[in-house]
Specification:
Layout: H1 7-16, H2 21-40, H3 50-63, H4 70-89, H5 123-134, H6 152-165, H7 169-172, E1 191-195, E2 205-209, H8 211-223, H9 225-238, E3 244-250, E4 255-260, E5 263-268, H10 274-278, E6 280-284, E7 287-290, H11 304-321, H12 338-357, H13 363-376, H14 382-390, H15 395-398, H16 402-405, H17 427-441
Parallel strand pairs: 3-6
Antiparallel strand pairs: 1-2, 3-4, 4-5, 6-7
């Protein structure tokens, strides 16, 4: 492709600001779509006017085959405003066509401010998603002989891991075997590790994986993963020069050593980016094997598009069985992996509040307790504990869950001991670890 100036210079400017490759790829699609629209109107981005931008907004939000929502348009409007501001400051254009309102907002910004799209599952919906949608079972728990999915234990383990830790999809899908204590973890014990490079905004935090979730992953690692790894060992060997070949792992300090592009390198596990984790392999007596927990065809880490396909296929199975007796209702839109994170946050927050306050008699008392926590119980405040565990940039983000904790129509189950991951773990187990960790830090 030939360089298009000054767009290439702008993307170089963004790269110098340390934008990730994923972010730059998303920006490129937005800018390419915008430039194509302007060309259809006989315009260039150099001489675009506010009326062109208004027309583009109408096209994106109303006229195209699948209009985008306000949240998506807000992201695009902010980026286009950033582009035109840079063009003006760099002398490529005379004036920024994006007019700013008196309050500082862009004239093209969405008029409606939307809150978080929090969707959470009931216990029955979670089991429906995990066992029937992902694992290919029938509603009566028998195996469906017509199920054509592969590695049902893998999808089930991913579901359990996401639900019991609250990790984002990019965090749990890029896990490495040493982070779950492979070879060092004693049976029946949880796993604790740190995430940073794979976390949103690179914010470091500790992740606690309860015993049942680790055992669920271990079932996949022991029963299904070896076949996937063995089938791809030869293909990985042919690509050895492109991979990070690890020959030593210090589990105690979370550090790995190996050869990358012909040089000896050492990395802290939490500091390894998703891209580096994807090419991390180790030498075994059977050949090269990926270090990632969740691998697929080709022996390497499963990417976002494949996880998207897996959940779409699970949704189709759920819809086929949704009309049968005792099946829970499905939402209008298919479940997302991120909804498991919302479920974790809501259930843990509700449980911590009940442990500290008991059963509040009315809604007024339940609302009053949040004020009390913020004022006098910072160390044991459920909102701050959950906020830290989710890796939210601000506790204010966690506040959005409060409107659901007192909603009887969306409560999952009063008895949290029924919320088990894999025959044992409950939110009580997870909460005890959270409270002990918070007390140990003195917060």
């Amino acid at each position: 492709m030939l360089p298009v100036e000054p767009l290439c210079s702008w993307f170089r400017h963004l790269a110098y600001e340390n934008k990730s490759a994923k972010t730059l790829r998303e920006y490129a699609y937005i800018v390419r779509r915008y430039v194509g629209f302007l060309e259809s109107r006989g315009r260039s981005f150099r001489d675009a006017t506010e009326s062109d931008l208004a027309a583009y907004r109408m096209f994106r939000t109303q006229l195209q085959d699948r209009p985008v929502g306000e949240a998506m348009w807000a992201k695009e409007a902010q980026l286009l405003n950033q582009l035109h501001r840079w063009l003006e400051q760099s002398g490529y254009t005379g004036v920024n066509p994006v007019r700013q309102a008196r309050n500082g907002r862009s004239a093209l910004a969405p008029r409606v401010v939307q809150g978080m799209n929090i969707r959470h599952m009931s216990l029955a919906q979670y089991r429906f998603f995990r066992d029937i949608g992902l694992a290919g079972q029938l509603p009566d728990s028998r195996i469906d002989t017509t199920f054509r999915g592969r590695s049902s234990l893998r999808a089930r383990a991913a579901c359990d891991l996401a639900l019991s830790t609250g990790m984002r999809p990019q965090e749990w899908s890029t896990l490495l075997l040493p982070e779950l204590g492979e070879g060092e973890r004693r049976p029946g014990t949880p796993a604790v590790f740190e995430v940073q490079a794979c976390a949103k905004y690179g914010k470091r935090r500790e992740v606690f994986v309860p015993t049942g979730a680790v055992d669920s992953v271990a079932n996949f690692v022991e029963l299904e993963r070896p076949e996937l790894a063995a089938a791809s060992a030869a293909a990985l060997e042919r690509r050895r020069d492109e991979l990070f070949v690890i020959d030593r792992i210090d589990g105690a300090i979370g550090r790995c050593h190996g050869v990358l592009r012909g040089r000896r390198r050492a990395f802290t596990l939490s500091a390894m980016s998703p891209q580096l984790r994807r090419i991390a392999v180790r030498d075994t007596h059977d050949g090269l094997e990926a270090l990632a927990v969740f691998i697929g065809h080709g022996g390497q880490m499963i990417g976002p598009s494949n996880w998207y396909r897996i959940r779409c296929e699970a949704w189709d199975r759920m819809r086929r069985h949704s009309g049968e007796t005792d099946m829970p209702p499905l939402p209008p839109r298919r479940w997302r992996w991120h909804d498991l994170r919302h479920t974790f946050a809501l259930q843990l927050l509700s449980f911590l509040e009940q442990q500290l306050d008991g059963e509040a008699p009315d809604a007024v008392t339940r609302r009053r307790r949040h004020v009390a926590y913020l004022g006098g119980h910072i160390k044991h405040n459920p909102l701050l504990i959950v906020s830290r565990r989710l890796g939210h940039a601000s506790p204010a983000t966690t506040y959005a869950y409060l409107e659901y904790t007192d909603d009887p129509m969306n409560a999952v189950d009063a008895a949290f001991r029924e919320w088990t991951v894999e025959d044992g773990d409950t939110y009580a187990d997870i909460a005890r670890h959270m409270l002990a960790s918070s007390a140990g830090r003195g917060r």
